[in-house]
Amino acid sequence: MSGLTPLLVDGLFPNGIAHYALGGLLIGLGTAVIYLGTGIIAGASTFLESTLSYVSDLPRFNKAKYVASRDWRVVFTLSIVAGAALYTVLFGDGWWVSDVQAWRFAVGGVLVGVGTRIGKGCTSGHGVCGVGSRSRTSLVNVATFMLVAIGVAQLLSALGVSP
């Protein structure tokens, strides 16, 4: 059995696991700092909604809790993008580091956006914060995210769709 573990790790993580572990540690640390400092769960879809309160008059985006905390939420959101950009510049091979076509990312982004509304939150809120706090709703949502993702990946693979 112990001989299977290195093969499994090498197959799933051909570039090693250190940078994934570091990323997970930083996500957990950031989530804890935000929660301990503000009492707010660090879900990205809520951060997006609060940011939209700057440019939208819709009541949905102008809830008092969003407007009161939107400044630091914008800094958090921009930091996510800046961190990814900085990592790419320092360690990547250019700005586009995927074999996936840009239009597929765009379609996937729209589908994820629709899913966050249907699921009442995003993978970061449910997956990182909700599961960590043993929320039943989050556990169900994360199981649903994973099952749908695995099913779609298997379907696309069976249809011969590649990046």
From TrEMBL:
Its main location: membrane. It comes from the Archaea. It is found in: Cell inner membrane. Keywords: Cell inner membrane, Cell membrane, Membrane, Transmembrane, Transmembrane helix, Transport. Pfam families: Sulf_transp. The chain crosses the membrane at residues 20-44, 72-90, 102-119, 139-161. One of its GO terms (cellular component) is plasma membrane. It is a multi-pass membrane protein. This is Uncharacterized protein. It comes from Haloferax massiliensis.
